[in-house]
């Protein structure tokens, strides 16, 4: 009888183990509702975790979630989707720096055209410096395998230039920007991104047409934190150290200078190239930690737009309100590269994520008021907005420039 009882207990234990393994086995691929979620599910289906391990506990808790939506979301959390917008943040920093610089060049042309003959605004050898501070707030809507995000930033930018020839201006610029981004839900990570930008610029204008060219290098430093959490499971993860990224920017814009009295209209067209990458990195902090391979963004956009401004003279002061409207279109079909990752324990296969790109069309608007004293010192207060079907970005600027 004792022998029979022992056989019953052993058989029951084996049956329980088989049942538990069957529950853990999924199949998890069927839980996924997006390509990225299904890719993680395929990897989990190929794992046979040890009984009682953290990996088994994670997979069991995922299987026990009550709804299909919750199980799909859990698979999405296990992917690298929280990091899909990182190169976009760096490219956005380059966009903001370039836009401030081109707004400054517009003001330089306006001051030169408005200056009285006995008080020229510039000449060969003239040096001008500009200092700009700005605040940005933005919202990116979530799409397939791409998280929603709220971001805000603070930036400081400096430029110095001179005129080697009457119609030609050349200069150099440097800037820093700190970005905070909250991805996915409120309980998920707050990612910080510190950007340093440096580069040359040049502008040619003969009073009838103009050409502006800017370029630069951007160095990004990311501090990454991520929370993977559902009923029965919680991991708080962080990258091992600072994650770095390189970026390059180039913009060319050409336009016509039309004038009627104190009113100017400037139709223009431009081409903008942005490159931003994120180096490979490893997370720490739990079973869901990932090894993420390097990935990047390569964006080429065309733009069409126009500016209109007027000058109001008040003694030694010139007050200049201005408006700008611009349409940009992404010329590359897939600017973002795919992201490859695997669990940091390295006992499972690699899974890939191809995030949905941002909408290819965006409308940009700008408004500013500049006060210039004696064609030498200018103070500008401005707003720039970017609006796409999946993003809204607002930028507020205070700029001071001085001719020496």
TrEMBL record:
Known SUPFAM superfamilies for this protein? Autotransporter (SSF103515)
Gene3D superfamilies per UniProt: Autotransporter beta-domain
Tell me where on the tree of life, at the top rank, the source sits.
Bacteria
User: Which PROSITE patterns does the record associate with it?
Assistant: AUTOTRANSPORTER
Keyword Chloroplast, does the record have it? no
* Keywords recorded for this protein, A-Z: Signal
Domain named Autotransporter is located at 119-404
Signal peptide limits: 1-22
**InterPro entries named among the record's database cross-references:** Autotransporte_beta (IPR005546), Autotransporte_beta_dom_sf (IPR036709), OM_autotransptr_brl_dom (IPR006315)
Any keyword Signal?
yes
Any GO CC annotation of this UniProt entry: outer membrane
Q: What protein name is recorded for this chain?
A: Uncharacterized protein with beta-barrel porin domain
Q: Which organism is it from?
A: Sphingobium jiangsuense
